[in-house]
């Protein structure tokens, strides 16, 4: 039989709680659809620093490399915030992206009908918002040379932002291809009026565009995009941009939907392999209380089914189950209007498993 | 008598129209308060490219350097968008900031009571929003070395982001000092979990903070800030950040107030000298129709009075006049709910002059 190997990285904070519910969904999928999953747990982030002295142990990387996909909870927390660079969870995150060749981060942002009111934007502005931010994930200023030097004006710190044509081409193609499966609109975001990397970005995207004549391409300056996301969120379909801009804009886009506790993300490379994780963080303030919302992690499993395994029917089943449970009025604390009626992590997970 | 010299740069698009109304306000101030202004016009941006072959002619720089303050309309437009770098309006903008030592861009973002409904955010979320973004303006990736080179992966483009301690200190001090005149809260925005420049930024801001014990300092990561501006805009007082982040966040902040046609900005250096301009751009689509909103430019004059000349009474008079005219229901097209009742640029300017 075709056994799919999934590396499971619970991570820090609420990571373990929400991942546990997602694993129940995996189990239920095996029962309902006859698929087979083999999960292997690995240490990563803060807990790996504590137990192994490094955020990304060799062993963890091996587990991921021999898997078909990775399910990640969340990493980080104040405990490790003042560590030196090599001993910080974020360093592990950058390391795993690079080591696994995950050059593309896919962040869908859309409105859950029943959560429309949760946004700080007016419902009529949000109406119809359904976009995907495709963020370049292994290039740019995150990975360029960094150093300090002494100058006449005191210490100077330097970060280098670099992009080559190959890096831009592969992410651009992926974005065009995603747009082809959707409303066929692509917004490429850059700061071409100032940055050389952005000018190369824009030239390259324009050249690649010739291969996707059915996709309508617009170029948007990053500052303008930060505004347009607020003014006309529903007009965006797919947004493609470089690493740093993508970090900022994907979080802005997620927040404006009001559904940040519900959004999944995928980090992809050249093949079907992918790393899937909720958009929300490790929320150390509520960790261990059993009140966190497992939906984004459960929906990350659905995204894994779609993008890595092609198990669309199973993905549908999960997404339908989530919708059903929400429509029935069940809420965890983060999305409950009346907090006194909120249910816990376990209860929410069970309801979704039962509804599949 | 103390004659103040003001360099007036009308620029492109709607620039000349809105600047003309602001000049009427200058005249009216002379009559009402006995001040004396000497204005000198200079070419800058697209029009300077057309007439002088460069966005920032030597002559224009001289006019600015011999002035006490600069009033700028707006520059740029599609006509010059595909020019080579040296022949683009933006290059003039970066050049003038550097040449005049304007290392700090002050962008107040607040809600006009009568325009609350213009925002895409819910009024109850916006309630009380009144913040200032202090953006570093002559350092970082905008001004670092830029080049291309050939690699095995095709052409590579490189931008360099650098900050030294002196640059960070002076902008940090300015932000702390502004915070002291307000609600005494400063949010310093960086990406210290990834960037070396951000780590130096944070260290330096923390050190400077010791001199301002009355100001409450928080550090916010740039991606998180993009979210928090949407979630809790009214909780921010002063935000200080580096050039690129400031570009993005100040536009996001302006847009969320719904008052972008109304917001003024100041670019300052070491002394009282400053360059004042509306936050909105050159709006080439409506240029020459006499329908643009002159309020942001008129309020830029008020900001000039406050920050460069210390003419607080005259600034009050302008700001009160604007409020009075708006409260009386007068609107230009951009802010009118019922567009059929909108008045033009000239009429709005005259109403404000009359109300002073
Ligand atoms: C933790 C940090 C390094 C990371 C990033 O900026 O990439 C995070 O913000 C994210 O978006 O996944
Ligand atoms: C035109 C551009 C160079 C400029 C900038 O990014 O600084 C503009 O966006 C601004 O914010 O004044």
Structure description:
Chains A, B: It catalyses: (2R,3S)-3-isopropylmalate + NAD(+) = 4-methyl-2-oxopentanoate + CO2 + NADH. Two copies of one chain form a homodimer. In chain A, strand 6 and strand 7 (154-164) form a beta hairpin. The first copy, chain A, folds into two domains: 1-100 and 273-356, Isopropylmalate Dehydrogenase, CATH 3.40.718; 115-262, Isopropylmalate Dehydrogenase (3-Layer(aba) Sandwich), CATH 3.40.718.10. Chain A is built from twelve helices and twelve strands. The first copy, chain A, is an alpha/beta fold and 356 residues long. Chain A has helices at residues 15-33, 46-52, 58-65, 89-99, 123-126, 165-180, 196-209, 222-231, 243-257, 295-309, 312-327, 345-355, and strands spanning 3-11, 36-41, 69-74, 104-110, 130-136, 146-151, 154-164, 185-190, 216-221, 238-241, 264-268, 274-278. The model of chain A has no long low-confidence stretch (mean pLDDT 96). Chains A and B meet through strand 6, strand 7, helix 6, helix 7 and helix 8 of A and strand 6, strand 7, helix 6, helix 7 and helix 8 of B. Strand 7 of chain A pairs antiparallel with strand 7 of chain B. One 3-isopropylmalic acid sits between chains A (193-194, 223) and B (90, 93, 247).
